[in-house]
Amino acid sequence: MSKFRKGGKKEVGEISTASLPDIVFMLLFFFMIVTVIKEDDPLVKVEQPRATEVTKIEKKELVDYINIGVPQDARFGTEPVIQLDDAIAGLDDIRQWILDNKDERFEAEQPKIVTSLKVDKDAEMGIVGDVKYKLREAEALKILYSTLDDSDE
Q1: Are 73 and 41 in contact (CB under 8 A)?
Q2: pLDDT score of 38
Q3: Using one digit for the tens of pLDDT, what is the confidence trace for 105-137?
Q4: pLDDT at position 14, please?
């Protein structure tokens, strides 16, 4: 007598999907927690000046930031330089940077783009004037200066 049956078909049970939503939400929460929003690393020292008449920006996703200050790395010297995104740049790079940032956005958002200048309070106005001139050439006419709110103290 044989203990094993041959040729018998066994039915495979259904897979339970009751825990599937729990697994999906667990993965969703995991990726939400471990994802880091990229911010530009400061390559220049910018100590912002204080101001009393300050307004907050509503749509920060439409703001392009230009940092102007003394570089933190001594290889770039001790004079104020320009930082565009994550790189030290020259005056001639500003126009192309503005055009690239415009191309990355929807056509309806392009007229609403604002360029924010984060300038070190000890920087001379010569480099700021040169940057503003290049922004004018690139038709980036909405400019604001980033400051700290002095009315809090």
Answers
A1: no
A2: 65
A3: 999 999 999 999 999 988 999 999 999 999 999
A4: 82
Q: How far is CA 41 from each of CA 19, 44, 112, 130, rounded to the nearest angstrom?
A: 42, 9, 25, 24
CA distance 72 to 46: 10
In the chain, which stretches have pLDDT less than 70? 1-9, 38-40, 151-153
Alpha-carbon span 137 to 15, nearest angstrom: 65
One-letter amino acid for residue 97 of the chain: W
DSSP string, the chain: --SS-SS---PPPPPP-TTHHHHHHHHHHHHHHH-----PPP-EE--PPEESS----S-GGGEEEEEEEEESSGGG-SS-EEEETTEEE-GGGHHHHHHHHHHTS-TTTGGG-EEEEEE-TTS-HHHHHHHHHHHHHTT---EEE--EESTT-
Note the pLDDT of residue 2.
59
